[in-house]
Amino acid sequence: RRVLLLGEGNFSFAASLCGATGTHVVATCYESEEEVSGLERAVESIQRLRERGAEIVFSVDCTKLKDYFLPEKREFDCIYFNFPHCGKKAGVVKNRELLAHFFHSSAEVLAEEGEIHVALCNGQGGTPADQPRREWHNSWQIVAVAAGAGFILSNVHPFKAETIDGYKCTGYRSQDKSFRVEGALNHIFTRSMPLPYFKPMICEIALESQKVSFQVPQVLVDKINRGFLELNSNHPVRIIKEKLTAELSQAFPLQNIDCCHSLLHQGHLSEICHSNLFWISLSPEETPSTEEMSHGLANTVLFSHVDRCRDPDKNGWVDAQEGCCISKQYYLRPSLLPCAQAIIQRGAFLPGTLLVLSGPVFRKCLIAPHSMPVFHEMIFVCAVNRGTENSCIQTLVNSIKTNIYSLHQIVSGFKLSISLQEATSFDTAELNDFAAFESQLSKIEYFIHMEIDTSGSCEKGSCVGVIRKAHDELVSSEVVVVFASLNLDLLAMLICGIADWRMLWTSDRRFLHQFPRGELKLFKSFSLYPPSYEHDVSFWIPNGEQFDELAFHTIARWVSGEMVVSIQLMDSFQHPQTGQKSLCYRLTFQSCDKALTRQEVAEMQQLFRKEINQCLRVTLR
């Protein structure tokens, strides 16, 4: 390993590292050799380094690192910078600037999977790891500064100077004096994947015995055909699916329905709010060419579903602006329940056999921590003789609970509580988006509810599954069909301690590396304390029109690439003379896995303003 040390002062830290097996040390300082030689312990440390084969370079400016090393010697595996400081009485702004230039310079000499270690005095970093924590404006804002050069904070731990043999901190206000190192922290940064730019995407599928192509809604471009449930996948969603299937096969004869369930549905969903669906038009005139898409000329198609509403007097969908009927309207499947019901209607089942279906489903939803526009659903279907359905439900739920308990105990020592709650006794105000949408599909008998007790404090639980019985028209009078639906993504989050649903969809390899060979483990985030940025937007709503908040959230999702984590209504105002209504919303931007800068967020906000003006016809203020 090639290790670069910056701002060494008396070189005592470098001397303590030198000699480690397999490590080549390059130690540098900002001062000249003559200036350093007068510092306590410097001469003996330099002698020790040279005896052990280390390189020593004087007068190195940490903001211009590539100038000091030949191209073939620029890839360092680790860069250390302990207690950086501009010198004398420089304030926080100047020290932030120093760090910003340092990170940009380090990016040019760091190996692709290398690390940057920056030790700061307690409070300087401005992260929750500092105790006590300084006010943000009075800190060095190290995570936000590092993001500007494409780095994320992947670890932070105490800097224990007393455990480093021979180390003596120096350089306080450019003097041979020590910084206050009590409570100091070592911040470890790694490279972030760049923010993605998703081009419009055409998806080709088999539909009604022929191949058709459709344009994927922009908000879903990075989530179509990810293959999380395929045989060679080690994604936690698939691991949980396989474990549940194996457990249930002990209680039921089991049959996996592996046939491809169509991504597109067409039909009547009387109980569902149609604005929750991702509508797809297959009309030839509505489908842009690949050339048009590559030039970004397909924006009106991307959000064509936003401006459409159902006309009950016509066999089709009406464009709200043009009033024209649109042919061949389909929607991305919001549930696998219709697929399961179709199997039952065809009579393609054996009584007592448990059928298993799984796959991604798509639903528009408001932005919230556990609200997912796409997730992996797992449905169990069992036909039993009338009068035995309650026993079937109990056996099914007990098997699911036993397996989830077992998985959770392997992964975490926190206390887990799983309960089966009757739908009639469940407070609808407590329903998460998953349960609320399931309630629209058909009548629910029970909710499967999970709560995790962490450090003696019980987190708010989540509904992770529902139990239904078949409608009478689907089955004969002697048979009752039981349906159980599980949200595999929510289960993975709760079992593995994944706080943000977006992490399940990251393309960063560090996520899947934590689940080798199909093993579930407690997830450890590789991006700690990511910076967040707030922007407000105010606008007038056209008189006589109802504001489509769901479309507002959906636009925020796609223009930001899912970087918006919160949208709050801050103010509502109605003009006393015109009666026109004005709304003010606050958007909070934050990434869970990538470096995100203030400039990038500002560009997202500008694009968002443009899109809501065009798509929702609001007048910006």
TrEMBL record:
<keyword id="KW-0030">Aminoacyl-tRNA synthetase</keyword>
<keyword id="KW-0496">Mitochondrion</keyword>
<dbReference type="GO" id="GO:0070475">
    <property type="term" value="P:rRNA base methylation"/>
</dbReference>
<dbReference type="InterPro" id="IPR045864">
    <property type="entry name" value="aa-tRNA-synth_II/BPL/LPL"/>
</dbReference>
<dbReference type="GO" id="GO:0070042">
    <property type="term" value="F:rRNA (uridine-N3-)-methyltransferase activity"/>
</dbReference>
<keyword id="KW-0067">ATP-binding</keyword>
<dbReference type="Pfam" id="PF10354">
    <property type="entry name" value="BMT5-like"/>
</dbReference>
<comment type="similarity">
    <text>Belongs to the class-II aminoacyl-tRNA synthetase family.</text>
</comment>
<dbReference type="InterPro" id="IPR036690">
    <property type="entry name" value="Fdx_antiC-bd_sf"/>
</dbReference>
<dbReference type="GO" id="GO:0004826">
    <property type="term" value="F:phenylalanine-tRNA ligase activity"/>
</dbReference>
<dbReference type="GO" id="GO:0005759">
    <property type="term" value="C:mitochondrial matrix"/>
</dbReference>
<keyword id="KW-0648">Protein biosynthesis</keyword>
<protein>
    <recommendedName>
        <fullName>phenylalanine--tRNA ligase</fullName>
        <ecNumber>6.1.1.20</ecNumber>
    </recommendedName>
</protein>
<dbReference type="Pfam" id="PF03147">
    <property type="entry name" value="FDX-ACB"/>
</dbReference>
<feature type="domain" description="FDX-ACB">
    <location>
        <begin position="528"/>
        <end position="621"/>
    </location>
</feature>
<dbReference type="InterPro" id="IPR005121">
    <property type="entry name" value="Fdx_antiC-bd"/>
</dbReference>
<dbReference type="GO" id="GO:0005524">
    <property type="term" value="F:ATP binding"/>
</dbReference>
<keyword id="KW-0547">Nucleotide-binding</keyword>
<dbReference type="InterPro" id="IPR029063">
    <property type="entry name" value="SAM-dependent_MTases_sf"/>
</dbReference>
<keyword id="KW-0809">Transit peptide</keyword>
<dbReference type="GO" id="GO:0006412">
    <property type="term" value="P:translation"/>
</dbReference>
<keyword id="KW-0436">Ligase</keyword>
<dbReference type="InterPro" id="IPR019446">
    <property type="entry name" value="BMT5-like"/>
</dbReference>
